[in-house]
Specification:
Helices cover about 50% and strands about 30% of the residues. It is of the alpha+beta class and about 110 residues long.
Length: about 110
């Protein structure tokens, strides 16, 4: 898995990089066919103080690209929300793949 973590208007510290990496390990634990992950951490100069910190992620898995974003006052909370969203998307993608193959095999058995 290729992991790219970049920051826009902020410096990505080793502690922040480690936190994002540990959170994204949960996704690879559930689905091992993750090819590429790109994370963008941003601080916006908006008037809404509670939505300043933003985390975006593009995940390229076998057969599909997944995208999620999250905004929060705390960057660590935004990363938590982001990983929750990605985890749900990966789980849904995994069940679609498994259901598809399972139905095809079942039809072949009934025809015999």
């Amino acid at each position: 898995m290729n992991l790219t973590i970049s920051g826009h208007h902020l410096e990505v510290t080793p502690a922040l990089r480690g936190y994002v990496t540990s959170k994204l390990d949960r996704i690879t634990r559930h689905f091992d066919q993750v090819v590429d992950v790109k994370v963008l951490l941003t601080v916006d100069n908006m008037t809404e103080k509670d939505r300043r910190q933003r985390a975006e992620c593009n995940v390229h898995v076998k057969g599909r690209d997944l995208f999620a974003e999250s905004s929060h006052a705390d960057l660590y909370a935004a990363v938590d929300e982001l990983t929750d969203k990605l985890d749900r998307q990966v789980a849904r993608h995994k069940t679609k793949i498994k259901d598809h193959h399972h139905v095809a095999g079942k039809r072949q058995l009934e025809a015999v």
